[in-house]
Specification:
Elements: H1 12-35, H2 44-67, H3 72-89, H4 92-103, H5 108-149
């Protein structure tokens, strides 16, 4: 296997991008959890991080896919921003632990809150991801239409209204 190219998941450059993005995303989530209080026993910061992250990941992956194949700077952006930053900013393990704690509570109101929090988070996250995808697709169509109307004006932002 000498002379062959290493797969992306074994390349130091890509691992470093994921690591750097992961460190930044974790720090952002930690800051958010310090800034946003719980609503009773429901952690609003975790809900916020997961919904913002779902939207951002949907937008990022759709925007990158519409720009071309997963290579070069697009692959670097996907790994550093998607896997690293957004992946560590969101925390479905905390969502699971918080949901389990609420479901295991003695109070029927907390059990109901746990069901609403767990199921609501997943459904709202799915909606947020689809919204991110739709926004990226709409922006791409708008840019493509503007470029076609102006005859393909070059340069960054060329042909945009």
């Amino acid at each position: 296997m000498s002379g062959s190219v290493r797969p992306p998941h074994l390349r130091l450059r890509f691992l470093a991008l994921v690591f750097a993005g992961g460190a930044a995303g974790t720090a952002l989530r930690a800051g958010l959890t310090l800034a946003v209080p719980h609503l009773g026993r429901v952690p609003l910061a975790i809900l916020t991080a997961n919904l913002v992250g779902a939207f951002a990941l949907g937008w990022l992956l759709e925007a990158l896919a519409l720009r071309g194949p997963d290579e070069g700077s697009r692959r670097a952006a996907r790994l550093g921003l998607g896997t690293g930053l957004i992946g560590s900013f969101t925390t479905y393990s905390a969502l699971s632990a918080d949901t389990a704690a609420l479901l295991g509570a003695a109070s029927p109101a907390e059990v109901l809150a746990g069901l609403a929090y767990g199921l609501g988070s997943v459904l709202a996250g799915l909606a947020a991801a689809f919204a991110g995808i739709a926004c990226a697709a709409a922006l791409h169509r708008r840019r493509t239409d503007a470029t076609e109307r102006t005859g393909g004006a070059g340069g960054p932002g060329g042909g945009q209204p």
